[in-house]
Amino acid sequence: xxxxxxxxxxxxxxxxxVALVVGSSAIxxxxxxxxxxxAFTLSTAYAFxxxxxxxxxxxxxxxxxxxxxxxxxTIILLGMIFxxxxxxxxxxxxxxxxxxxxxxxxxxxxxxxxLPGLFVITCFIAFAMGTSMGTIxxxxxxxxxxxxxxxxxxxxxxxxxxxxxxxxxxxxFISDTTIAATQTQGVKLRDKFKANIYIVLPAALVTIIxxxxxxxxxxxxxxxxNYDLTLILPYxxxxxxxxxxxxxxxxxxxxxxxxxxxGLVKGIFTFPSMLKSIQTGMGWMQDMVAIALMIGGxxxxxxxxxxxxxxxxxxxxxxxxxxxxEAGSAMLVSFLxxxxxxxxxxIVTAGPIAKNFSQxxxxxxxxxASILDIFSCGFQGLVPYGGQLLAAASLAGVSPFALTPYxxxxxxxxxxxxxxxxTGIPRFASSANNN
Length: 435
Prior knowledge:
Helix content is about 75%, strand content about 0%. By secondary structure, the chain is an all-alpha fold. It has one domain. This is Na+/H+ antiporter NhaC family protein. It holds the Pfam family Na_H_antiporter.
């Protein structure tokens, strides 16, 4: 297939989606007025009315492009994670694991440190796991229980979990975004880590300070009889499995199995009720799977129509200096992430162009790799239709748009990333390009 010509109209389906959700919310003052799946369905219908300027796709060909995009391995994996996350959430709630874990935390952790502690623990787990999705599915249920116990908005606490998860996604040595950023720029993992740490560590510290200022509500009256340590085991199992390097699918599978065994052994479940609990949890996430398929197909259509090509060319022609090269790389990967709702895809797509910017204007490749990762992860932690916020919102039973204002850490790394580009700090003694 020939490469699509640059075509602004090819990018407009994502603008239609945002207009539908934000417009209806502004009119009704309610973010739940326009369901996300309905908005994507209408945006996809609009996309089917468009076409490429250098090739006229028939309706059947558009369907084929859409289905191939929806069937991409990344999208299918995302759907599987959604379903297993729902099952894990439902089973752990039904056996009392979530409440036991929250009560244990309330009993032993000083109240003022509950929210900062949740953020730090999430950061650590995400850094060790190298996946924000796995971290969110494991920790969000605990965050929800904590919010309910403390009388805090669920969106606030779940936003904390998302922020911590994006810390690990950005900084972990085994994160796919880290690998993509370093490989496309030809730098070592440790060099990108050093470049990132100057930006993300201050952002994490500021987040912790902000969380310590949050006023906690509710009445906390916990005694040792309020929790059963054996019920906490599914969360311990899932964290240990992740730290051992198991794939996120395996991690969730082991977590579900452990919760089911505990429920059966303690007589909380019968075998039929256990199966029903798993099915109920998967049912909670069915809309999220459909949304993931819709996003994959819509992005494929935008690419076929030349929308992504237009975006890339528009930024390329505005780069005129070293600072402009850094800003151009940041803008490119940011817009691609907003358009595709996938930070890894955004980095892989923007990487070769960003490397060309670096070579043309003598930008240190370590800084370029750092910029690609920071800005893609920052926006991925804010985009309401990205997998991370969709999963967290579905588990919490809130609109993903309600989470974005509380994702403070992603906002801070974008702010500090912008300051880094403007000031040129951190600088490095050598810009050698080492693999």
